[in-house]
Amino acid sequence: MIRSATPADVPVVHALIRELAEYEKAPQEARASEEQLREALFGERPAAFAHIAEDDTTGEPVGFALWFLNFSTWHGVHGIYLEDLYVRPAARGGGHGRALLTELARICVSRGYERLEWSVLNWNRPAIGFYESLGARPQDEWTVYRLTDDALAKLGRTAG
Fold first, then answer.
1. How far apart, in whole angstroms, are the C-alpha atoms of residue 69 and residue 111?
2. Sheet containing 2-4: which strands, arranged edge to edge?
3. With pLDDT > 90 as the criterion, what percentage of the chain qualifies?
4. What average pLDDT does the structure give for the chain?
5. What one-character-per-residue DSSP string does 39-107 give?
6. By the 8 A CB rule, do 30 and 18 touch?
7. Residues annotated as catalytic (active site), given as ranges
8. What's the rounded mean pLDDT across residues 4-31?
9. pLDDT digit string (tens) for 78-113?
């Protein structure tokens, strides 16, 4: 079962994010607090959204998708950027990841959004194979750039 996250889900979303960071071999980089997540997901002006995958038998959370809207200047419409998709190892192969992506695709179609996109680590062959089995294709003509930490602070202090 897939459902929208509620404020009561913030602790489990936080725990799943930590598990994802461990899986991606970067636990030290997952610094978001529960309060930050609560504000981002359920504050006065939500900046992100989340869905929870639950085990059909136990109702226990086994995965999540956290996403936000992006915008195509060329098409003039929103899309969804999937920041995180994670299913606990014991629940993999049970259709939860597919169900989460299906729900996001349903949202795109119903709202007239023209794309659903995300990034995947190059070494994560199981995820890449799964995404490609759904019809997703890599966007290899684009390279992701990111400013963080000292470089972001330095540029942000530069006088315009």
1. 12
2. 2-4, 49-54, 61-72, 77-87, 116-118
3. 91
4. 95
5. HHHHSSS---EEEEEE-TTT--EEEEEEEEEEEETTTTEEEEEEEEEEE-GGGTTSSHHHHHHHHHHHH
6. yes
7. 131
8. 97
9. 999 999 999 999 999 999 999 999 999 999 999 999
- Tokens encoding 127: 């995820």
Give the pLDDT confidence score for residue 153 in this predicted structure: 92
What are phi and psi for residue 48, nearest 5 degrees? -150, 165
Distances in Å between the Cα of 77 and the Cα atoms of 84, 113, 115 are: 22, 6, 9
Tokens representing 155?
A: 């540029």
Which region holds residue 84: left if phi is over 0, alpha if psi is between -120 and 50, else beta? beta
Instruction: Indicate the pairing of strand 77-87 with strand 116-118.
Output: parallel
Tokens for 24, please give them: 């991606």
Which candidate, 51, 79, 81, 48, places its Cα nearest to that of 65? 51
